[in-house]
């Protein structure tokens, strides 16, 4: 497929944590616009199911790799394989992440803090760095362009009790993205973050999660919860040339939750 303003044909997009949730929503948007996709996820069965779905939506090529993004060496090797298989990289969506389990900063262990930072911040940094390196090499060989995208959170702007490590990792990513936008603009590489609101995924099918979902839906100006499908459009936009002059931004997708009146 792929035609029109958000055409992604001929472009290769990497999505970490791309076999479910927001990552798969982003990938679905790219697939519908004819883009090639590489998914990094640790669950082989979910990878295979996501790849089948993306091919059915129109992605010409879908490659899946079991890459642990908490391992810098695995990321570097993952890119080597990606470039061998696909020949290029045009968009990177550093989406893999986890939230904090602790309800209070006072109860948060050093182990939990390090685990969150290792995945949410270090993993995203190394993923984006290696993507930028590949894009810069391509630009120096006469073909500039590329899109670096990080998955942030409304916690970049809001205080959340017990989630300081999670919020800190996401806020740091936003700062890194702005620096990348400035450093790599001369190569026509843009860098942006997205900040999702409350998004329902397959892991939330339990009574407590449904109660939380209802609470957020009632408080959101567009009165419903978010779904992975709500990220298809931004995925296609950021992977395509339509976003070629959009850089250094944090794009909030939350049904206006952040700006609601108290």
UniProtKB/TrEMBL annotation:
<comment type="similarity">
    <text>Belongs to the short-chain dehydrogenases/reductases (SDR) family.</text>
</comment>
<dbReference type="InterPro" id="IPR020904">
    <property type="entry name" value="Sc_DH/Rdtase_CS"/>
</dbReference>
<dbReference type="Pfam" id="PF13561">
    <property type="entry name" value="adh_short_C2"/>
</dbReference>
<dbReference type="InterPro" id="IPR036291">
    <property type="entry name" value="NAD(P)-bd_dom_sf"/>
</dbReference>
<dbReference type="GO" id="GO:0050664">
    <property type="term" value="F:oxidoreductase activity, acting on NAD(P)H, oxygen as acceptor"/>
</dbReference>
<dbReference type="InterPro" id="IPR002347">
    <property type="entry name" value="SDR_fam"/>
</dbReference>
<protein>
    <submittedName>
        <fullName>SDR family oxidoreductase</fullName>
    </submittedName>
</protein>
<keyword id="KW-0560">Oxidoreductase</keyword>
């Amino acid at each position: 497929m792929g035609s029109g303003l958000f055409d992604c044909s001929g472009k290769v997009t990497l999505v970490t944590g791309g076999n479910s949730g927001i990552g798969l929503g982003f990938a679905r948007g790219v697939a519908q616009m004819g883009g090639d996709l590489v998914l990094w996820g640790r669950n082989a069965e979910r990878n295979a199911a996501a790849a089948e779905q993306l091919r059915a939506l129109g992605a010409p090529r879908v490659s899946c790799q079991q890459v642990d993004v908490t391992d810098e060496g695995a990321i570097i090797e993952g890119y080597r394989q990606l470039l061998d298989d696909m020949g290029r990289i045009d968009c990177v969506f550093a989406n893999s992440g986890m939230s904090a389990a602790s309800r209070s900063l006072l109860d948060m262990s050093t182990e939990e803090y390090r685990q969150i930072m290792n995945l949410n911040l270090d993993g995203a940094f190394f993923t984006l760095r290696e993507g930028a390196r590949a894009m810069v090499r391509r630009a120096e060989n006469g073909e500039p362009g590329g899109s670096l995208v990080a998955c942030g959170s409304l916690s970049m702007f809001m205080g959340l009790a017990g989630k300081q490590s999670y919020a800190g990792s996401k806020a740091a990513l936003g700062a890194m993205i702005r620096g990348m936008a400035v450093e790599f603009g001369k190569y026509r590489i843009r860098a942006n973050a997205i900040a999702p609101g409350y998004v329902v995924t397959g892991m939330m099918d339990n009574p407590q999660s449904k109660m939380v979902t209802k609470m957020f839906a009632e408080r959101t100006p567009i009165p419903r919860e978010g779904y992975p499908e709500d990220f298809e459009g931004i995925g296609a936009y950021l992977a395509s040339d339509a976003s070629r002059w959009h850089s250094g931004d944090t794009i909030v997708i939350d049904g206006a939750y952040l700006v609601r009146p108290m």
